[in-house]
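Collaborator request log, item 7. Partner lab (contact: R.S.) asked for a structural prediction of Cytosine deaminase to inform their binding assays.
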Amino acid sequence: MNWGPVRSVVLRNARVPAALADGLALREHDAATGLALVDLAIGPDGRISPSSNAPAIDLGGRIILPCFIDSHVHLDKAFTVRRTGVPAGGLFDAVQLSMADAPNRSPEDLTRRMEMGLRMAHANGTAALRTHLDTQAQPCASPAWQVFARLRDEWRDRLTLQAVALMALERVDDPDFEERCHQIAELGGILGAFVPTGSATADRLDRLFGFATRHGLDIDFHVDESLDPNAIGLELIAESVLRTGFGGRVVAGHCCSIATRPEAEVEALVAKVADAGIHVISLPHSNLYLQDRTPGRTPRLRGITLVHELRAAGVPVHFASDNVQDPFFPFGEFDMLEVIRSSVRIAHLDSAVGAWLPELFLNAAAALRLDSHGRIAAGNPADFIVFDATDWYGLLSHAHAERVVFRNGSVLPSGGMDWRQPFESESR
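Returned to partner:
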């Protein structure tokens, strides 16, 4: 289909998730799939209109989804796998490879790789992205933060960008932690904490939430990225939120070990997480790659959190990319459709995908405080993706490399493959 300029046009017979469509006249709403037909009008201002007399294009029931929200990535590590190689074992082997590569992260190197990630995400239909940035030094002295601040400004009309200062939880013990939080707030960032097994204590977490409260910071955790049932960081975080009354947004990524806890403990643990209002992000690509990874041995266990049980208890759950072409996951290209396809299969979401998929958009938007994202709504910018599929099976069976991405009512140019080449020629 040759789209050409498309502002002031009506896309007739588009099939959309009804739960993500606001202020639009839906018809033939199928309760079983959650999909409905709509005529989607784009005005000359690039926004969605309830109706229009503009020329029409018949989509023939093709599916339209809102542009993606990728809520957990690592732009500062992306595309380093050709330098680092892949880990022999699991998470901490990948950490060691990444740390050994850290001296190579010059401002020029970071700029090149982070821009590549943004171009990929944008071309694939992502409109908002949150990246974690390793923050060993003070944020204002960090090349990654300096590069991110510049790119956030340069990309502001194309991508909504957020950054998390990723640090080990033990940093809260340092005398300069107050200054760290001040700088994160000044940079418009989110306070991050990596919580290895055994590092979380009530005192550390309570102090972390106290710092966040004083500086008006939300918190985004890497927690329980392990299959060890003794990894109970998520439970301790929930207890600290309830004990301190922390009022900011709390996001917890990974949370794998909950799946190895005794069934008798799971219900009470999940209830605590729900009571604390924690948002949980499952990151299946990296977790299935790293968890239960031993050379020469087939993995026995799956590195995925209890998404069904958490959702049933009222915990907002969604999925994100995490690592891309680095030692934590040596594949991928910042494509949230790939993540969704994997998640549906891995977590067995297929029996209720029509209910799950809209929640993934809405929950990601809520976790990042981006209420205007993740919807196809009258008055909103015409930011959405047209896929050559008319039902969920068709959508989730193909990579859809030829998807059509609309931003502000205009179709993004395809751009071909040239933007991948600089990294494919690098040696290890």
